[in-house]
Specification:
This protein has 13 helices and 3 strands, in the order αβββαααααααααααα. The protein is mainly alpha-helical.
């Protein structure tokens, strides 16, 4: 909350219980004038604190503790262990890539998947066992707001199905499509899927839209492939809101963007994607 504010404007003591004694930025040390210097991400602060500060803020996402004045516990792995980190990273990527090969998938027992989640979990366990980082470092940079948003999105998508709202929307789309043909259904499917993916998640949008696409195409007696492709593209075109996809929230947090910034830049991208998709998909995958 103190970013881009001066120490005169931002009460550091009230927020963090610490007094700023020195500010360093890009090697330059601010002296008397530091109270009038806006704080920036990456500034190095010399703080006068009590014993409660480090347990509360020392391992938070707000501050990166360089030194507590008592010990020199390293934040990053020792030089000799950094090669192990690099090796684990390469093995994780290679394992996830090999695990997606069709020949490997055919040999695996039913229900077993050697995907990125599996290898990332194994890598994390090995890193923790090898003590490459302090224990708190593994949870310090978890974006809990993103995890909560994803969990809530799954609940909302389930509620839409159980409440019958999804069926009502499907019936409305089919009534219109029967009068105006398959192209109208493509338009409606794209708009429906894209709105859902902007408000919830792309997974929920695809899960709701694929059954609609299959049912509608079978009732119209046309090839379902163009409808499936439209659903995939529309579910992936999450540009207009920060809550539509996890990486959007990450970008919003790091860049300090507003909701309106996404709308201003994302809506034109959504319109461009919509036009190109509706024009090209029927040509590449005929009805």
């Amino acid at each position: 909350p103190g970013i881009n504010k001066t120490l005169s404007e931002f009460d550091f003591v009230r927020h963090y219980g610490a007094r700023v004694k020195e500010i360093r930025r890009s090697g330059y040390r601010f002296g008397i004038e530091m109270n009038d210097i806006p704080l920036k991400e990456g500034d190095t602060l010399l703080l006068l604190v009590d014993d409660s500060f480090i347990p509360t803020w020392g391992e938070s996402s707000v501050f990166i503790l360089l030194s507590n004045g008592k010990d020199n516990t390293p934040i990053y792995p020792e030089r000799k262990k950094r090669w192990l980190v690099l090796l684990l990273l390469l093995l994780m990527v290679a394992g996830a890539t090999i695990g997606e090969l069709p020949a490997i998938k055919e040999e695996l027992p039913e229900g077993v998947q050697l995907d990125m989640f599996f290898f990332a979990s194994i890598t994390m366990v090995i890193m923790a066992w090898a003590k490459l980082f302090p224990p708190r470092q593994y949870t310090k940079f978890i974006s809990w707001d993103i995890l909560i948003t994803i969990a809530c999105a799954l609940g909302i998508s389930k509620a839409m199905v159980n409440s019958g709202l999804a069926d009502e929307i499907a019936g409305f789309m089919l009534r219109i499509s029967k009068e105006y043909g398959p192209h109208a259904l493509l338009v409606l499917l794209f708009l429906f899927t894209n709105v859902i993916t902007e408000l919830i998640t792309n997974n929920a949008a695809a899960a709701l839209s694929f059954p609609l696409a299959l049912s509608a195409s079978s009732q119209l007696g046309v090839n379902p492939m163009p409808f499936f492709v439209v659903v995939c593209i529309a579910a992936s075109a999450s540009f207009s809101t920060p809550i539509g996809y996890q990486t959007n929230l990450i970008v919003q947090g790091i860049g300090h963007y507003k909701f309106t910034d996404f709308v201003r830049v994302g809506v034109p991208l959504n319109l461009l994607t919509f036009i190109v998709t509706i024009l090209l998909v029927p040509l590449i995958w005929p009805f």
